[in-house]
Specification:
7-stranded mixed sheet; SH3 type barrels; elongated; 226 residues; 3 helices
Length: 226
Amino acid sequence: MRKVSSMVGLSVISTADGVNMGAVTEVVVDLSQGAIVGLVVDPPPAEKGVMAEDIAVIGPDAVMISDRSKMGPVADMPELTDRRRLSKDKPVAVVTKSGTKLGTLAEIYINPATREVTQYDVSAGSVRDLTDGVLSLPLVSGIVHGPDTVIVPDTLITSLEDQVGGLRGTWAAVSRKLRQDLHRASQQASVLYQRSSESMKEAVEQAKHKSEQVAKTVSDKFEQAP
């Protein structure tokens, strides 16, 4: 399983002649098909495209294609351009068919060997992600993946509620443990401080007592002097 975002920046190399054809700038995915549609290579105005069926290997450090003919102008690939997001700066909303917003599309995971989507994450915002966790959803039939919105079947709500409850329970347990650890540490610090104060007080008393003894000895010797 691999994050789609980790493919951005990979070199695209022709295995026929070893030529580096450019770097991946966008991975176009269609959740309704459950697979990668293709890759966009290099920034505009020099954008080129590679369709998913023309990808030979998605490796850890490079994407391999058989030869240069597998890459062409993005404008000549309507299957690719039609599936691109309207804006990379605008999050893709994820809503149910009945109109309940679940969040925004976050990470998408694929099987590099098959180019198929294995799961995708839905974010409810950085704070909610921290407290409740990111929702990881499976692919189901009936998903509509538009350029700015993903619509999922209402049947996902049941499994979604179970997952949210489980995540909240997990975070609650972690939170409780953190509070317990903090309270325990505070108690230990208080005991150490008390012990330290008592030890210091005892040392001061001993020094005072010794000082008084020395002063008395000096005084006695002074009085006994001729």
